[in-house]
Every structure is written in C-alpha cells, then in structure tokens.
Amino acid sequence: MNEKHMKAVADSIDKGVGQFGAETGIEIDDETPLFDLSEYPEEQQEILKECNRRIDETNSKYRIAKYREDMFAKGMKAGMYFCTFDRDENLLSFEFNDETRQMLGYDGLEDLPNEFDSWVKTLVPSERDGIVKLFWDSVRIHRELPDITHATYRMQKKDGSIIWVTGAGRFIRRPDDGSLEIYMGCYRDITAQHELEEYLKIIEAIGKVFNFSLFIDVSDMSYRMISTNEYVEKVEKDPDAIQFLKNNVDASVAGSFHKSLYDWLNLDTILATVEEHGSTSFEFYSESAHRWFKGIFMVGDRREDGSIAHIVYGCMDTTDAKLQTLAQQKMISEFESEIYIDSLSKIRNRRFLDEKLIYEPCHAVVMADIDLFKSVNDTAGHRGGDEAIQKVAEILEKSVRKEDVVIRYGGDEFMIVFSDITGDELEKNLSHLRTAVKKVTIENCPEVKISMSFGCAFGTDLVNNMIATADEALYESKKTRDTYTVIDI
User: Fold this and answer.
1) Cα 37 → chain centroid
2) Full residue range of the structural domain in which residue 202 is found
3) I need a labelling partner for 405 at 20 to 30 A (CA). Which of 131, 285, 300, 422 fits?
C-alpha cells in the first residue's frame, strides 16, 4: 500500500477524533462474465447490453451477499451501513440497517432516513468535518487502500449522549474496471470498554506521579487507594475520603497547617474550584517525613450529563523543587515588588489580586473607600489627595497581620483579604481601622477631615466569590458614611 497516501488520509482527520487501521479482505471471483460486445454483430449489441446490465446487477447482489456474510463472520454483528456508487464513483444511495438505528436510539426509517446526511448528523459535531473528510478522501484513493479498513471514533445518539464505536468498512470494487461499487461497514458500541481503558490509563498515570493518591467517587466519597506510602499506612482508615485525608493531616502534618488544610478539605469548595479551574492544590510540611508536600485535587472522570463523577487526590513531594528555588527567592521578590506593588501607596495593587489572590480561599473580604474623596482633592489639591491615599494605605497595612493582604483596588478604594479571622476579631479590626483613619491629617490642610466606609463579606469561600457581597456591604455603609457593614455568607 502507498504509505504516502495512507498518511494523507490519516492526516485528514482532526487530532483526537479516532483511531484507524486497515487489512486485506477476501477475494470473490466466481461471477458470471459479461459479454464482449466486440465479438457480436452490431444488430445484436443492444440486446447484449441489456444482458450485461442484468448480469452486472446479479453479480453485484451476489457480491454484496458474500461480503455481508464475510463481515458478519468476523463477529461485527451490531449495526451496518451500505453506500452504492456509479461507475464515476458518485454516491448513489446510503442505507442503515435496523441494528444501527437501535444502537443510536432511533425508531425506524422515518426517524433516521437512509440518507448520507443521516450518517453525518450522528457524528459528534466538533469531530464531524474531520470524519466526513476522511470518508471522501478514502473513496478518492480507495484503489490504493486495502479492501477492509477499521475505525474507532465517537457517535452521537438521538438523546445527545456520546458513544464510542469501532467498525470495519469494506470497499467493494467492480471486477472489470476496479471502480468503487459499494462501501459497506459494521458498527459495534465499545463505550464501556473504551471508558475502562481510559480509567486504567488515569490510574496508571496517577500512580507514577503521586506517592499517595486516591480515586474518589463524589456521590458517596468512597475511594480506591492508587498509591500509598509508609506514613499513610499508619493512619486510621475511614470510608469517607475527606475524613481519611483529615486523619492524615492529624497524624503527620505540622500543626501550623492544620486549620488551613481543614478549610481546604471542603468537598463543595473542592468541586466548585475543580469545575472552574481544573484543579486545586495546597502545600504543607510533614513532620513525620520532614518533607514538603503538595496536595492536589483534579477531575477523574465525568458522567454522561457532564457532571463530575470522580475526583483524584494526589500528594506530591515538593521538597527538592522547594530547595532548588530558594536561591531564586530574592530575584522573585524584587520582580514582584516591581509589578505587584502600587507606586503611590506602596501596597499590593490590583494586578496582584487578579493574578495571585483571586481564587484563593479566605475568611473575609473587606472593600473600603475614603468618604467624599472628591472634596479632599478639591480642598487639598491632588497632591493632598495622594497624601491621603498614602497615609490611609499605611494605616491599613500596619493594622492587619502579616498573612492578611491590603490592596489598592483603584482610586481611593481599598481591599483587605483576611485569610483566617473570627467574626469578633473582624469587627474589632474594622472598628479600630475606622478610628485610626480619622486621625489622618493632610499637611498644609489641617481643616480636611478623613473618614472611611467599610463593607465586609464574612465566611469561608474564594476571594473571587466574596467581592460582590463586600461591595454590597460597602454600598450600605456609604449611605451614612464613616461606618462599617458586615454581611455573613
């Protein structure tokens, strides 16, 4: 077979659409020969042409019967299709059998007519063009291909669900001129087999990457342990995956990480984050192993409706990578100072929020702005306004803990993200900030008075999910100014 043409056919299908192969089929040569018209008088040739037509038709039916028999003998007994072509290899007809309709969830000929477009609509939309192109490319160079080709690809049932099928297609060529007479084939639904193979690939890959990993059923939190280590083996087992992971935290993780890890090990938050971003991770230190690890959740597989059926938890040793990057920390710190620090207020900027913080979990998000800031600018000038922003930023930065983040959100608006804080601590902090800000004075404009309004979203969620609630709370505070509002979520 011409490898160049085979590669051209293989390349004509979009990457990932399916897998294709070929083999040589049986030969069928016991057919009634046609009359050679040149051997008979001209006045007899019209009759002989009609005889040849009938012989040709009989031979064709015979070949179809024999080829069907051969294909069914190979065990491909599910669905079948038949295409017929004229001697110029133009498509004349297309036909499904009832088994194909049943496999795809259609009810009879009216539901899925015998038309080429019917086959096209059963292909997955995103892969349709590639497979149709492969079909026509194969017809175009069929003489250079073996009689039988094999294909594995996806089809879409009437209800919209997707199945994997494997099939054998056969080229039936006319004996006299080699033109394509019939292209016929069989389908078999191999969805269950394909999904098992994909599952085994996932299991194998996970076991190689992570020294401790679980394949978790989100419906009941049961799990299969894929890989383990000596420290995990000592931990008390639990049928619930999340509780089992918490037992691991209790047994081996440094105490300073416990609360943050417990908060991270929240199934609803995990599923929401994995659904939106593909994965969620947390780095911690193991006192038992004296090593750093990163725990990661990611999608395992999905149900037919697209919802997550399984998630994968993997634990990766990051100690060596962490040690290798220590020498780069100073460089990184200097780089981040340039791009993530606001030039006026000298605190974190909006870019830091968008690139580093937006999808991190936290316990509170505060939005705040300076009351009647336009009047500050009008009275003290823009330099006075800049001075007010600088002094307010300094107060906010000094009034929170090292692990909390103060951001200049834009203009005179600020954001504070508290990673871990109780409701009482939050209100005390807001009350202190409200009082401290009122002590700010503007040089050369002592008559200008500064106050701020604060709006806070309090609960446990991603920063991104809490901003709108914090804005709502700030809106309430701005109605009276110089106050704070807290909304629990």
Assistant:
1) 65
2) 194-325
3) 285
State the residue for tokens 């416990």. 258
Split at pLDDT 50, 70, 90, the class of 30 is: low
108 SS3 class: helix
The rounded distance, in Å, linking the Cα atoms of 122 and 141 is 24
Which CA distances in Å does 234 have to 3, 229, 247, 319? 57, 9, 10, 22
Cβ contact 184:67 at 8 Å: yes
Place of tokens 């004229």: 86
Is the pLDDT at 33 greater than 60, yes or no? yes
CA distance 46 to 274: 74
User: Residue 334 domain-assigned?
Assistant: no
- Tokens 């981040």 identify what position? 336
Residues contacting residue 59 through CB under 8 Å, at least 6 positions apart: 31, 32, 175
Q: Is there a single domain that holds both residue 243 and residue 200? A: yes
Residue whose C-alpha is closest to residue 363's, from 259, 215, 293: 259
Count: domains in the chain: 3
Q: Which of the 8 DSSP states describes residue 419?
A: S
List the alpha helices (DSSP H) in 82-190.
98-103, 108-111, 116-121, 125-140
Residue indicated by tokens 């090990």: 265
Amino acid sitting at position 326: L
Judge if 307 and 385 occupy the same domain.
Answer: no
- Say how far apart CA 368 and CA 268 lie, in whole Å: 29
Q: State how beta strands 223-227 and 148-156 pair.
A: unpaired
User: At 464, is the pLDDT very low, low, confident or very high (cuts 50, 70, 90)?
Assistant: very high
- Does 74 score more than 60 pLDDT? no
Q: Which residues contact 356 (CB under 8 A, 6 or more apart)?
A: 340
Positions of E strands within 190-290: 212-217, 223-227, 279-286
pLDDT per residue as tens digits for the range 252-274: 888 888 999 999 999 999 999 99
**136 and 180 housed in the same domain:** yes
